[in-house]
Amino acid sequence: MEPAAAPPPKPPWRRRAIDEALEIGVLTAYLFITIGAVNVMKAAVLHDHGVHVAYWGVAIVKAALLAKFVLLGKALKVGEHNKNSPLIWPTLHKAFAFLVLLFVLTVLEEIVTGWFHHMTVAESMAELFGMRLPETLAGVLVLLLVLIPYFAFEMLAETLGEGRLVRMFLTDRHAFHETRPGGPPA
Question: In which residue ranges of the chain is pLDDT below 50?
Answer without folding.
Answer: 183-186
